[in-house]
Amino acid sequence: MGRYVVQRIALSAIVVLLSMAFLGVFAHLVPGDPVTVILGPRASEALSQTVRAEMDLDKPVPVQVWNFVVGALQGDLGNDFVSGLPVTTLLAASLPHTVILAVASLGLAVLLGVPLGVYAATRPNGWIDRITRVISVSLITLPAFVGGLFLLLIFAIGLGVLPAIGAGNFSDPVDYARRLILPTVALAATWIGYIARLVRTSMLEVLGQNYIRTARAVGLRDRVIFYKYALKNAIIPTVAVLGVGLGSLLGGAVFVEVIFSRPGLGTLIVDSITSRNFPIVRGATLVIALFFVLANLLADLSYGFLDPRIRVQGQSA
Amino acid sequence: MTNDDPQVQRLVSDLVARRIDRRQFVRLALALGVSLPVAGALLAACGGNVPATTGAVPASSGAGPTAAGAGPTATPAAPAVPAKLTLRLISDIANLDPAFYPASVDEAVSAGIYEGLVAWKPGTFEVVNQLAATFEPSADGLSYEFTLKEGIQWQKGYGEVTAEDVKFSYERIAGLTTPAIESPYKGDWSPHLKEVIVKDKLSGTIVLKEPFAALMRSTLPTPSGFILSKKAVEERGDKFATDPVGSGPYEFVSWTPKERAILKRFAEYSGAFAEYIGSPFPEIHFLPIENDSAADIGLETGEIDFGAVSVANIERFEGNPEFEVKTAPTLDYNWIGMNQEHPKLKDIRVRQAIRLAVDVPAMIDAAFEGRYMRANAIIPENMGLGYWADAPQYDRDVAAAKALLQEAGVSGLELSFTYTEETGSKVLAQIVQENLAEVGITVTLNIVDSAAFYELGKKLRERELFYVGFVTQPDPSWSFVWFTCSQIDIWNWQYWCGTEFDRLHFAALKEPDQAKRGEMYIEMQRLWDAQANVVWVSFPTNFYGHRTGIEPAITPHGRFLPHAFRVA
User: Fold this and answer.
1) Which of A57, A110, A136, B193 is the most exposed, having the fewest neighbouring CB atoms within 10 Å of its CB?
2) Is A222 within 8 Å of chain B by CB?
3) Which chain A residues are Cβ-neighbours of B452 within 8 angstroms?
4) pLDDT value at B18 more than 80
5) Looking at A308-312, B165-169, B470-474, B563-567, which range is the least confident one?
6) Does B530 reach chain A within 8 Å, measured CB to CB?
7) In contact, A153 and B294? CB cutoff 8 Å
8) How far apart are CA B522 and CA B424, in angstroms?
9) Which A residues 13-52 touch B at CB under 8 Å?
């Protein structure tokens, strides 16, 4: 198991390093002059040159990549060109909102999607299963920004029971939680459907296996069979998806953040791309990449705990 | 359903007795089949100042006056002041240093923090004293004597405003301090400013190298004329940009990027400009909301009190008695440009044909819901200087356009039309494509993102037709400067270098007689018009929605001044 863990961590470190190198290069792949965008029409040539030098854009590409990677490894992601604030400060302000939104959405998706999938699998092709399938597919095909707008129209404008914009403040947790409800539901909707479908399929496969038949033969109750024996194995593909899902939700929360006017990594990146504020784009993208890698690493490691066979394969590899 | 219907009468009674609020009243009235105008009239008949007591409207949102005992028979009381005024910014602030502010949103927030020697009287371009007790130009226009009002205090304990601060502020932005800074706004002062001489603690002289006619229009009353605390700037260094110190009625409290910026009333405010502003709000909160739909919803739910609304939703707000929409024309200008140095567009008859082939009113109708004012030249009337009232208006004439192309011996012309993703630009581009197809010109649409669109340099020479809009300051010089010869390969995308045009531009900057300046700018527009290298489209208008009960302050060029808002 120890070797398996080391292998996974080493692989993750390589992925992170490659991400950093790519992010260092990408400023040169995107058309548009960041200096013009940042300074506007009134900038003199002297000022443009100064800012270009501050942005490292006057240096050869390999030097820029090296500077970025070395800086990032030391925790220095550079400064926002416009405000002069360290990128880490901007990330620290945005990241918690996005992480909370992503985790809450994923939590809600698991909370509703798993039981829905299990329930559908216990009565395959029954009317509950059919309804669940229709609901699942409907939710999967519902883009977050469409769902978000509907939620806003119903709950914020129509009924006036929930706030429409902003994330609130951590000093007022109740208000913060109220402001989290609609964005969470909007972002989770697709995943509820997706997880329900995934769990149902996995459960059906597992329920057909010999050890489940044996369990039934010895007279174990359905609830015990489904949740204690079948789900533990059926959940492995879902855990793998959740690992990717967390990273995807971090990056994909942007539409929800825009619609609900919430601060977050998504809006930070989109605004920074528009203004070609590369240090912020690189820093925020790196954070998302780190979360992706971390979530996948945790998912990889969790297989070993969920399924001892994977542990054994890891040891023999 | 009539007004006399018992159910409607009951609703009115509930409203008067404050059992329901205005929002609930309107909703229930509509549900009973009462039309929106009638519901509005009933609301107005009830006094219109029933307090917003419940629902999604926060108590502090400024959702109208909250006078106790309001109702048909109550004595009118002074309107209550909400604890905070919440405003929408179309993007987040980034730098509140007047020497480096990147956008109009930073300017809006800064306007309450800083003051200048002089300022515009809110709602006008009339320049009045602000920090200055006296401000006198010399007869030759080369120097300006000033004396500061006594006892003006800096925020955050930085002491009294002095003439040394004035010297520092103006020389800093002009790049004359040591170490020198490179401000994008250097051109507001340089190369005109020679120095600021400090005579004593409160008085001094601004000395120019040459007369500078735009000084009182687009330098001193704008952020380039704000006075900063020398001590605060030197002490705070780069941090001054996000934790500024001024002498204005509001002081900076905090900024959470992408979330909120907060100002609070400056307790020791001198009242230097209180005669004109006197905003009663203890705090002003600025929320960056880039998405128009989100902003419209925020306004509707009472989470913001004021903000730009999308053109598509103006009617909805205008039809709602809880809101008002202010129309604020700007000085900005949009146009379709033609690169006259491009081989395909060198012949003036081709450019004239294009000018006659496009349907500008149709573009304004389709792209801006018909709400923007058509432009016939670069300077709008509200500039107050240089407006060319007799500018020719080129209405669509397909036959004349075809004749011009035939005369030029041009057929099967193919042109590219480059534009970026600004409001309405896609629809506008499609109309241009259709219009020009009718005269035999094939147009390829080329949409690029703004960073690529504004990539300057020799690559611009490849552009043929383009659609673009510029913003400007309240002086014609700021509209014209981008089209002078020195701006070729930078912002002069028409690639026209007019010697007389340039001469007039620089002469007008030194002309002290504003009437003569106006004539010079009109002449420049005549010269430009003769080149037929632009199709003027519109002067954009800002539309601000706000809750009734708030009286916003808006400049004649469409910017808002949060520190001058009042309770109606």
Assistant:
1) A57
2) no
3) 31-32
4) no
5) A308-312
6) no
7) no
8) 29
9) 30-34, 36-44, 46-47, 50
B373-374 and B414-420 strand pairing: unpaired
Q: Which of A147-151, B146-150, B463-467 has the lowest mean pLDDT?
A: A147-151
Q: Cα A204 from chain centroid? A: 28
Whether cis (ω within 30° of 0) applies to the bond prior to B343 is no
Q: Give helix B499-510 / helix B514-531 axis angle, nearest 10°.
A: 160
Q: Map residue A265 onto helix, strand or coil.
A: helix
Asked which of A141-145, B11-15, B454-458 is least confident by mean pLDDT, the reply is B11-15
Find, among B501, B406, B94, the residue nearest to A39 by Cα: B94
Query: In one letter, which amino acid is B54?
Result: T
**Residue corresponding to tokens 């299990």:** A118
CA angle (B168 as vertex; B166, B174 as ends), nearest 5 = 105
Residue B311's pLDDT band (boundaries 50, 70, 90)?
Answer: confident
Question: Residue A83 carries which side chain, given as an amino acid letter?
Answer: S
Higher pLDDT, A174 or A1: A174
Contact by Cβ (8 Å): A165, B294 = yes
- Give the residue among A263, A95, A83, A287 at the shortest CA–CA distance from B294: A263
Confidence of residue B41 (pLDDT cuts 50, 70, 90): low
Cβ–Cβ below 8 Å for B94 and A32: no
**pLDDT of the residue at A80:** 83
Q: What does the pLDDT read at residue B202? A: 96
Q: Which helix (H) or strand (E) holds B415?
A: strand B414-420
The closest of B126, B525, B557, B494 to B329, measured between CA atoms, is B557
User: Cis before residue B191, ω within 30 degrees of 0?
Assistant: yes
Query: A46 and B182 in contact by Cβ < 8 A?
Result: yes
Strand partners, B256: B260
Strands ordered across the beta sheet of B250-256: B250-256, B260-265, B283-288, B84-89, B306-308, B541-547, B323-329
Q: How confident is the model at residue A314, as a pLDDT?
A: 53
Which residues are CB-neighbours of B538 under 8 A, at least 6 positions away?
B333, B334, B360, B363, B364, B368, B372, B373, B374, B375
> Tens of pLDDT along B58-110?
333 333 332 333 333 444 555 677 889 999 999 899 899 999 988 889 999 99
pLDDT of A222 above 90: no
Query: 3-class DSSP state for residue B274?
Result: coil
Q: Predicted confidence band at B6 (pLDDT cuts at 50, 70, 90)?
A: very low
Query: b/e per residue, B359-381, with b = 16+ CB within 10 A?
Result: bbebbbeebbeeebeebbbbbbe
* 87-116 in chain A: CB under 8 A from chain B: 90, 93-94
Burial of A39 (0-12, 13-18, 19+ CB in 10 A): buried
Give the CA distances from residue B182 to residues B43, B190, B209, in Å, rounded to whole numbers and listed in that order: 56, 11, 20
Q: Which long-range contacts (CB under 8 A, 24 or more apart) does A66-75 make?
A: A66/A24, A67/A24, A68/A20, A68/A23, A68/A24, A68/A282, A69/A17, A69/A20, A69/A21, A69/A24, A72/A20, A72/A283, A72/A286, A73/A20
Strand partners, A50: none
For residues A207-240, one letter each, b for 16 or more C-beta atoms within 10 angstroms of the residue's C-beta and e for the rest, the string is beeeebeebeeeeeeeeebbeebbbebbbbebbb
Q: How far is A92 from chain B (nearest CA, A)?
A: 10
pLDDT digits (tens, 9 = 90+) for B489-535: 889 999 999 999 999 999 999 998 999 999 999 999 999 999 999 99
Output DSSP code: residue B181. P
ipTM: 0.73
Please name the residues in contact with B7: beta carbons below 8 A apart, sequence gap of 6 or more.
B1, B32
Subunit contact A261:B185, Cβ cutoff 8 A: no
Query: Token match 């209405």: residue?
Result: B395
The full length of chain B comes to: 568
